[in-house]
Design a protein that fits this description.
With 105 residues, the chain is mostly helical. It contains four helices and no strands. It folds into two domains: 15-56; 59-105.
Length: 105
C-alpha cells in the first residue's frame, strides 16, 4: 500500500470589495460572525482576521453583543416579574379587606 499525499491548494483569494462587504455585514447589519462566514462560504477565522485588520476586535464585539442581549433579556424579565408582584400585592390587599369585612359581620 502506498501513501497518497494530499495536494495542498492555495487558499482562495478574495478581493477587497468582497472583504469590505463581509465586514459591513458584521459591523453595519450586526449579523453574527458565524452566520456571515457561513452565508459567504468562508472560514470564520478568515473573517475574524479581516475584522482585526480593519481595526475591530471580533471576539470582544461578539462578546459585547451577547452581553447586551443578556442584559436586555434580564431587564425584560425583571419588568415582567415586577408586574406579577404588583398584581399579587393587589390580590393580597383585596383578600385582607375581604377578611376584615367578613369578620366584622
Amino acid at each position: 500500500m502506498s501513501k497518497q499525499t494530499a495536494k495542498r491548494t492555495a487558499p482562495p483569494h478574495y478581493d477587497d470589495a468582497f472583504k469590505k462587504g463581509a465586514i459591513q455585514m458584521v459591523t453595519e447589519q450586526k449579523l453574527p460572525i458565524k452566520q456571515v462566514a457561513a452565508e459567504l462560504g468562508i472560514c470564520i477565522d478568515t473573517l475574524r482576521s479581516w475584522l482585526r485588520k480593519s481595526g475591530l476586535n471580533p471576539v470582544s464585539e461578539n462578546h459585547n453583543n451577547n452581553i447586551s442581549k443578556k442584559i436586555h433579556d434580564l431587564e425584560t424579565q425583571i419588568r415582567d416579574l415586577n408586574k406579577k408582584l404588583a398584581h399579587k400585592d393587589e390580590v393580597i390587599d383585596t383578600l385582607k379587606k375581604s377578611i376584615g369585612i367578613i369578620s366584622n359581620h
